[in-house]
Design brief:
- The chain is built from nine helices and eight strands.
- It is an alpha/beta fold.
- The chain has a single domain, classed as Alpha-Beta Barrel (TIM Barrel), CATH 3.20.20.
- The protein has a six-stranded parallel β-sheet with strand order 2-4-5-6-7-8. A two-stranded parallel sheet has the order 1-3.
- Helix 2 crosses helix 3.
- It binds fe (ii) ion.
- Fe (ii) ion binds next to loops.
């Protein structure tokens, strides 16, 4: 009886989000506080009460400074309270794995924006496996951080390469799947790879990667998908946050 109750609760709830772009005007995510608040209210309606927002920090393209992101994030937090939206917001970042990130890992790892217990969200090129990814993993872990690879299902260099996926996991990398991959938001190939990762139980976190209201609407579609149900019934680390 308790099991059925627990399952129905999970089915009806959108869980703690660990990946989103809701700090206005700093990347390719939302561009106004109004849009952020609209999305946060919608996510709250879907059942989430905790959102980690993770603006891009990427070489020349998004040269965001951690302190500035926290400052704007704090303003957003004040507006969430003013609007009466029942969401707890935390501010981290999605770091592109490049030389700038390697430099920070080597020199000032404590300045990096993380969520939970030292989880560091990072992304890579969509096409090529970074040459120094193993070095990055080792250095991040040596600094006490837990690297979380954003949306593994979107990297063509990983498609159907489950030994590469397992190698990353064995090295201690945690994998974060994008919910909207299940709604065929990116491509059929990404959707199928996402399904396979769920079938093989190779996912540790799920997140929205929500950049705008269109993607926010795609979350609702994804939540109807049977693979979403399978995913949220995995022992995800989202439940620990
Ligand atoms: Fe992202």
């Amino acid at each position: 009886m308790f099991g059925i109750f627990k399952k129905s609760v999970r089915l009806n709830n959108y869980i703690t989000d660990v990946h989103s772009h809701l700090i206005p005007g700093v990347d390719d995510g939302v561009q106004s506080f109004e849009e952020s608040l609209e999305i946060l209210a919608a996510l709250n309606k879907l059942g989430t009460k905790k959102v980690t927002t993770t603006p891009h920090i990427m070489g020349d393209l998004y040269q965001n400074n951690e302190a500035d992101l926290v400052k704007i994030g704090n303003t957003l937090r004040e507006k969430i309270v003013e609007q009466g939206i029942d969401i707890e917001l935390s501010i981290a970042a999605e770091y592109f794995l490049d030389e700038s990130l390697m430099d920070k890992i080597n020199k000032t790892p404590s300045a990096l924006l993380t969520f939970g217990d030292g989880f560091l969200l990072f992304e890579t090129s969509f096409y090529n496996r970074p040459l120094y990814i193993n070095d990055f993993i080792f250095r991040a872990q040596s600094a006490g951080l837990k690297p979380v690879l954003a949306h593994p299902e979107r990297y063509s260099y990983l498609y159907n390469d489950f030994s590469a996926i397992e190698d990353l996991i064995e090295r201690g990398v945690l994998l974060q799947l994008n919910i909207i991959s299940l709604a065929n938001f990116y491509s059929k190939q990404t959707k199928r790879f996402a399904e396979q990762l769920i079938e093989k139980k190779l996912i540790h976190f799920i997140g929205s990667d929500c950049h705008n209201t269109i993607q926010c609407n795609a979350i609702k579609t994804a939540m109807m998908n049977k693979y979403y149900t399978m995913a949220i019934n995995l022992p995800l680390l989202n439940y620990e946050l």
